[in-house]
Design a protein that fits this description.
Helix content: under 10%
Largest sheet: 17 strands, mixed
Shape: globular
Order of helices and strands: HEEEEEEEEEEEEEEEEEH
Radius of gyration: 17 Å
Number of strands: 17
Structural class: mainly beta
Number of helices: 2
């Protein structure tokens, strides 16, 4: 039977969707609706005046503002609601990341300029061309440039700012406790965007008759 193997690719749910929130597969895109599954190795993109909140199987909450692109690079489950590894690539846009039930060492977040090791609960991340901002709201995090220059965020408000001078240019990193940006300004973009929910509460009740009419379980 192939159904259980297919079901493993479903790693989360869309809890909040405002306007254009797209699942990107090669040249094709499809609109994501509330309750739709999020799949392993999938890219999610929001449009202008759009936003979404995704709840992963371990109850990690990922909020995306407008014009954001995120890829779930890698997910390895320990069990149904805990990850051994979860890698998230935030290519561009504004994000809020709230850790779920997995061990904190399981999480790895990357942007084009930074690698973020999670040691705690809530991070606001802005990924722009030539700049990444990582703002700690709760917990702790380690932020490193691609050349492995790292700083530690340990107090709420601690912020890492990574800038690059362009293609082939050197990245620089600095730390401040006066953040130039946080995701808070984006929270009003959609009702519930900055709430957090458990995966069991986000997941719709689905009667499995084996037909899989949406093709979601197998990523079609």
């Amino acid at each position: 039977m192939v159904a259980p193997a297919c079901a493993q690719t479903r790693v989360g749910e869309a809890a909040v969707v405002k306007n254009e929130v797209l699942r990107v597969a090669g040249p094709s895109t499809t609109q994501i609706k509330v309750g739709d599954g999020v799949l392993r190795d999938e890219t999610v993109r929001t449009g202008i005046d759009s936003a979404t909140r995704l709840v992963m199987a371990d109850s990690t909450n990922l909020s995306l503002g407008a014009n954001a692109t995120l890829k779930l690079d890698r997910t390895v489950f320990d069990d149904e609601h805990h990850y051994r590894e979860v890698a998230i690539r935030m290519t561009s846009g504004a994000f809020r990341f709230v850790t779920g039930q997995s061990d904190k060492a399981a999480y790895k977040i990357t942007t084009p300029l930074a690698t973020i090791g999670v040691r705690g609960t809530t991070l606001d991340i802005l990924s722009q061309r030539g700049r990444t901002i990582v703002n700690l709201r709760d917990g702790a995090a380690s932020v490193c440039t691609v050349s492995f220059e790292c700083i530690q965020l340990t107090r709420p408000g601690d912020t890492a700012i990574i800038t690059s001078s362009g293609a082939g240019g050197r990245s620089t990193i600095k730390k401040t406790n006066t953040p130039p940006w946080t995701f808070a300004a984006t929270c009003g973009a959609a009702a519930g965007l900055c709430s957090t929910t458990q995966y069991a509460d986000a997941a719709p009740v689905i009667v499995d008759d084996g037909s899989d009419p949406t093709g979601m379980l197998c990523g079609r």
